What we know:
Blueprint: H1 3-24, H2 35-57, H3 62-79, H4 81-84, H5 88-106, H6 108-131, H7 142-153, H8 161-170, H9 172-181, H10 188-211, H11 214-247, H12 254-271, H13 273-288, H14 293-312, H15 320-331
Helix pairs in contact: 1-2, 1-3, 2-3, 2-15, 5-12, 6-10, 6-11, 8-11, 9-10, 9-11, 10-11, 11-12, 11-13, 11-14
Amino acid sequence: MNEQDFVNEREADWQELSRIVQKADTRRGVRALDREDLLRFMRLYRRVSSDLAYASAHALSEDIVSYLNGLVGRAQAILYESETSSSPFRSVLHFYNYEFPALLQRRCGYFLAALTIFLIGIGLAYWMVITSPPRLNLFIPKEFRASVRAWKSGKIAAPPSAAFSGKLMTHNFQVAIMAYATGPAICVPTTYLLFYNGAVLGAMSALMTEVHRHATFWPGILPHGIAEITATLIGGAAGLMMGVALLLPGPYRRKEAFLQAGREGVQLLLGTIPLFVFAGLIEGMFSHLAVPAWLRLTFAGLNGVFWYLYLFLPRRPPILGGEEAESSGRRN
């Protein structure tokens, strides 16, 4: 089936789902749908989700994939609304259990773009410093230069990993917010922030190579750094998403695309709060306890696995209201 045949065959379902979503996209939400609309909504949601998977797998045009992605995202928010309307606590729990990870998975391309920029920063800074150590000052904040020089010369015995990680990582929430907020500026400030954050880490890593102290540096960074860096990348992904929405709005009007990206960006940013809270607690604990390096690294690996499974493992949330409605329809 070629692209035009696919559109001709499936477009009626897309338009019907869009109509129902628009009807539900009011203050009344899902309560605005009657029984017949709700049953159609459930069937159409599954079909259009399947269409999105087909369009992505067969590399159809970006406009089609973008349109279906947006439609499925809007439908999903309506679909799960009945599960979150009973109490504020349940709503928050539902957001972190399902909505936030599902949104990040739909927008995974932006996360990968943010990760790529960050890794380029690490790699370039590492190469620049390892080939010319004086370049370290290009990347290390001024307030750290004196302590880094003193440590490197042997005037102080302990590596500055705890101080470095504490100072750098406590700023990462602000960096995540700035990366999101500056996204509309054609992605340039967001890209710079992601690159520079990676460059600082890359420059310090090059210094560790020069003085042979990776074994003492990374155990001080990774236990809390994995969660914080991941959260910062999510903030960067939100900013890139807003910038791209302005540059390439796809089938939507520019304003509509930007507002949609802005709403999703706020959700992504809110989703990072548990990661930052977790990282802050762990950083405080490990900074004051004499924990062996092997245990720190083991813990870092385990919490890294946990967070990435939480963020990227697909899951099917309970759709009790929809399933009950559909079952009722079959009985009648």
